[in-house]
Amino acid sequence: MSTNINANVLKNFIVKTLGADKITHNQAQKFDISQDKYVEANKDENTYLELDEILDDTDLYNQFATMYVEEQDKDKAARNEEKEKEEAAKVRDKGESKA
């Protein structure tokens, strides 16, 4: 499921989510990335994970892809809820105009 996300779409999502194209260890903890996974994915062993390191690691790729899918589902649900409210308001307005 989640691995079917286009890499460019996922890159944009990660940058939007992180606010940058790098993730520090503290930020990684907020996304439930374990210390071991962080160290394993950090190929150049600097103080942050770069976007390409995240995308090259299958587990991290899948984790962010899952986050992307969940975010898309939330957005879709919010749009559907708003649409239902608009339709209910139209029906209510029609009923009031006939009275």
Largest sheet: 2 strands, antiparallel
Percent of residues in β-strands? 5-15%
Coarse shape: rod-shaped
* Structural class determined from secondary elements: mainly alpha
Task: Report how far apart the termini are.
Answer: 51 Å
**What helical percentage do the residues reach?**
over 70%
Uncertain runs: none
Radius of gyration: 20 Å
Strand order of the largest sheet: 1-2
Please state the average pLDDT score.
87
Order of helices and strands: HEHHEHH
Task: Give a written overview of the molecule.
- The chain is about 75% helix and about 5% strand.
- It has about 100 residues and is mainly alpha-helical.
- The model has no long low-confidence stretch (mean pLDDT about 85).
List the helices and strands and how they pair.
Blueprint: H1 7-18, E1 22-24, H2 25-30, H3 35-41, E2 48-50, H4 51-56, H5 58-98
